[in-house]
């Protein structure tokens, strides 16, 4: 019996080098209901890598593994491992446009091979009970008609995928860097809305260029879920209002001081286990954006978090620079 899909009204996008387990722990302090995604992890890293690519904190749930690959056997093997690890869902990356991803035959280039994506979904669903979802673009290169996107979703849904997250930009697979691919191709939200109208029985989430919860709620009038990436990374305290503004819950809103105190304890635990403070602090640089002293907070953390004796107390000292300017 398949497990019920998560409520994806709001999620934080998988962001390479950013949404690691320390980042996700930090985000979970601020929102209990927002769905969190790992960075993309490739099948090769999971099967052959020596690192702990699937490690996470229990507090992170609900947490989704984003998986990169196109070999259905390897995808199924990794799905089984991820389910055993306790992940709530697995998402297939069909949206990343980087050269490295294309050379590995996964990411956005897979939009041109919907039957292969469907084969991966089917193979994974055969061996796990947790939901399998797909994150794509609206098109690639010159394949950017609505018909192209419609066909992709039509084929993949037949394998049992019930939730598609669509980045509302097409991807240029050559000529643009991954960063440019997040900014230059124009956004076309209406095309994602059309997907929902045509596939009303599917869960459709939208991604790309969304900066406020007011915008998110406008999108939610047309589709099922909103995914926000860079805006939350750059202004993480936005998440403190997520449960109230998106989910309508009355969960407690933590103050920045409460978050600092909790993260100081987390940093000490990480450092005592042999880690570096900077591994955690780098995700927190934007916590005070909008407040007097935010620049001093960022600078103090950037200059001191890599020192050998850096610990949670240093985080509190950085925040004191902000507190003093609020008086």
List the helices and strands and how they pair.
Layout: E1 10-12, H1 21-30, E2 35-42, H2 43-48, E3 63-68, H3 72-85, E4 89-94, H4 99-103, H5 114-127, E5 132-137, H6 146-157, E6 163-167, H7 178-181, H8 189-198, E7 203-207, H9 213-219, E8 225-228, H10 230-234, H11 242-245, H12 256-272, H13 277-281, H14 294-304, H15 312-326
Parallel strand pairs: 1-2, 1-8, 2-3, 3-4, 4-5, 5-6, 6-7, 7-8
Helix pairs in contact: 3-5, 5-6, 12-15, 14-15
In total, how many domains does the architecture comprise? 2
Strand content: 5-15%
Count, helices: 15
**Annotated CATH topology of the largest domain:** TIM Barrel
Biggest sheet descriptor:
8 strands, parallel, barrel
Strand order of the largest sheet: 1-2-3-4-5-6-7-8
Shape: globular
Uncertain parts = none
Order of helices and strands: EHEHEHEHHEHEHHEHEHHHHHH
Secondary structure category = alpha/beta
| Number of beta strands | 8
Our Rg estimate from Cα atoms comes to 20 Å
Helix content: 40-55%
Write the CATH homologous superfamily of the largest domain: Aldolase class I
**Could you say what the CATH architecture of the largest domain is?**
Alpha-Beta Barrel
Mean pLDDT: 94
Distance between the termini: 57 Å
EC number: 1.3.1.91
Keywords: Flavoprotein, FMN, NADP, Oxidoreductase, RNA-binding, tRNA processing, tRNA-binding
InterPro entries: Aldolase_TIM (IPR013785), DUS-like_FMN-bd (IPR035587), DUS_fam (IPR001269), DusA (IPR004653), tRNA_hU_synthase_CS (IPR018517)
Function: Catalyzes the synthesis of 5,6-dihydrouridine (D), a modified base found in the D-loop of most tRNAs, via the reduction of the C5-C6 double bond in target uridines. Specifically modifies U20 and U20a in tRNAs.
């Amino acid at each position: 019996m398949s497990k019920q899909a998560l409520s994806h009204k709001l999620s934080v996008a998988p962001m390479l080098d950013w949404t690691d387990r320390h980042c996700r722990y930090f985000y979970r302090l601020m929102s209990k209901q927002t769905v969190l995604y790992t960075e993309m992890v490739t099948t090769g890293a999971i099967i052959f890598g020596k690192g702990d690519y699937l490690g996470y904190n229990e507090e992170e749930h609900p947490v989704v593994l984003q998986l990169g690959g196109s070999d259905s056997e390897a995808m199924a093997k990794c799905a089984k491992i991820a389910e055993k690890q306790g992940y709530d869902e697995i998402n297939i990356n069909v949206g990343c446009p980087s050269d490295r991803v294309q050379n590995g035959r996964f990411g956005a280039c897979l939009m041109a091979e919907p039957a292969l994506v469907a084969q991966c979904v089917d193979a994974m669903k055969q061996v796990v009970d947790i939901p399998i979802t797909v994150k794509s673009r609206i098109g690639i290169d010159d394949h950017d008609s609505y018909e192209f996107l419609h066909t992709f979703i039509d084929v993949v849904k037949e394998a049992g995928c019930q939730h598609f997250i669509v980045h509302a930009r097409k991807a240029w697979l050559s000529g643009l860097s991954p960063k440019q691919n997040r900014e230059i191709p124009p956004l076309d939200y209406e095309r994602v809305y059309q997907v929902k109208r045509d596939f009303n029985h599917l869960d459709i989430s939208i991604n790309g260029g969304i900066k406020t919860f007011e915008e998110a709620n406008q999108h939610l009038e047309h589709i099922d879920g909103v995914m926000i990436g860079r805006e939350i990374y750059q202004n993480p305290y936005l998440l403190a209002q997520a449960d109230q503004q998106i989910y309508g819950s009355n969960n407690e809103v933590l103050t920045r001081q409460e978050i600092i105190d909790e993260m100081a304890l987390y940093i000490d635990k990480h450092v005592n286990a042999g880690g570096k403070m900077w591994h955690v602090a780098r995700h927190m640089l934007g916590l005070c954006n909008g407040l007097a002293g935010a620049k001093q907070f960022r600078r103090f953390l950037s200059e001191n978090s890599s020192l050998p004796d850096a610990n949670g107390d240093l985080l509190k000292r950085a925040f004191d620079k902000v507190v003093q300017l609020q008086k």
